[in-house]
């Protein structure tokens, strides 16, 4: 339990969630200071908007320039993963390394005893739990936070619904926030299509084959990094029923395609598994494969070479290497791992 007299740094974005979270902390008696991360070249343009929010809240604002670290640890790693035929989740990594890593270090250096954000999730005694609004729960994106990071974290919106947050913001006088229209994009894409962004990051066109599981060549592509598992558009393969990407062979620069039924699988392998409980010989619970995937009943057991085998009770669609699988017991996150292959 973090005492209400302590100093808290809140990651302010200028949006309704972090603004309302800061206001709630002030109402609870915390000494709150705002911190805005400069992550992208255009971040300084948003700083004035965030400063206006901080002024309205009546709290100081610190600008934290993490652009170089963000480029090296997040953007470069993102492009490298696509080069290897993976589909990464940069937000999960950014939360661990940048927001709840480097940003909190800056907060601590300025005397902050804890940090807060506007995420829709809950922390209890070093445990991470789902937010109570099922449509906004963001515990998936926080799955790689350590117990030490969670113990110094307050999430004021964990028990709130998004509609109530907008209502609270309006009641507090923040009339600039309107419901709806929230961006779900990766921040550094900024509306840019992924292939164009990756070309800017140095991934060059490289002609390869589009093939079926039995080896039939159906067409050609200009780089398997243009595709992800489950993708339908952009294949240029007319047929009576649609073709989908079912796998990527980065080494052979091949895009593997199949019909919808071929996207369903029960088993996958995980690397870099981290547990928030003692590593079990056999774990049973619910596993979530993407931020919008409905967690499903599964079992997890150790496999060779430090990997783990995850087996679902029912086949799941479009299991994607590079994404995170997050393990839940009821609403509690107990572990996570990176999907390596099916």
How would you describe the overall organization of this protein?
- The chain folds into three domains: 7-171, HUPs (Rossmann fold, 3-Layer(aba) Sandwich); 205-258, Roll (SH3 type barrels); 264-341, Elongation Factor Tu (Ef-tu), domain 3.
- It is α/β, with parallel strands linked by helices.
- The protein is globular.
- It has helices at residues 16-27, 43-57, 67-83, 90-109, 147-151, 162-171, 194-200; strands spanning 7-11, 31-38, 61-65, 114-116, 121-124, 127-130, 153-154, 208-212, 217-221, 244-249, 254-258, 264-275, 283-288, 296-302, 308-317, 324-329, 332-341.
- Helix content is 25%, strand content 30%.
- The protein contains seven helices and 17 strands.
- Strand 10 and strand 11 form a beta hairpin.
């Amino acid at each position: 339990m973090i005492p209400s007299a302590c100093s808290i740094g809140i990651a302010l974005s200028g949006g309704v969630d972090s603004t309302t979270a800061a206001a709630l902390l002030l109402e609870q008696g915390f000494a709150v200071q705002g911190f805005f991360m400069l992550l992208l070249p255009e971040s300084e343009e948003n700083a004035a908007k965030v400063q206006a929010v901080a002024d309205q809240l009546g709290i100081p604002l610190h600008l934290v320039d993490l652009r170089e670290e963000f480029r090296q640890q997040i953007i470069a790693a993102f492009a490298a993963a696509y080069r290897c035929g993976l589909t990464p989740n940069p937000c999960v990594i950014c939360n661990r390394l940048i927001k709840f890593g480097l940003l909190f270090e800056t907060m601590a250096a300025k005397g902050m005893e804890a940090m807060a954000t506007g995420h829709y999730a809950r922390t209890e005694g070093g445990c991470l739990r789902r937010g109570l609004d099922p449509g906004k729960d963001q515990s998936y994106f926080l799955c790689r936070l350590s117990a030490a990071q969670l113990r110094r974290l307050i999430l004021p919106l964990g028990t709130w619904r998004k509609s109530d947050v907008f209502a609270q913001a309006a009641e507090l006088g923040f009339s600039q926030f309107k419901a709806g229209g929230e961006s779900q994009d990766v921040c550094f894409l900024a509306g840019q299509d992924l292939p164009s962004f990756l070309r800017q990051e140095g991934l060059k066109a490289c002609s390869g084959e589009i093939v079926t599981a039995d080896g039939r060549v159906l067409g050609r592509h200009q780089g398997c990094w243009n595709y992800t598992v489950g993708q339908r558009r952009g294949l240029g393969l007319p047929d009576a029923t649609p073709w989908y990407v079912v796998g990527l062979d980065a080494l052979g620069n091949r895009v593997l395609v199949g019909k919808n039924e071929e996207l369903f699988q029960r088993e996958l392998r995980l690397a870099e598994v981290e547990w928030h409980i003692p590593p079990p010989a056999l774990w049973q619970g619910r596993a979530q494969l993407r931020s919008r995937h409905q967690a499903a009943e599964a079992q997890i057991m150790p496999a060779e070479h430090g990997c783990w085998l995850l087996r679902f009770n029912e086949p799941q669609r479009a299991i994607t290497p590079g994404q995170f699988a997050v393990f839940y017991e009821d609403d509690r996150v107990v572990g996570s791992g990176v999907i390596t292959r099916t």
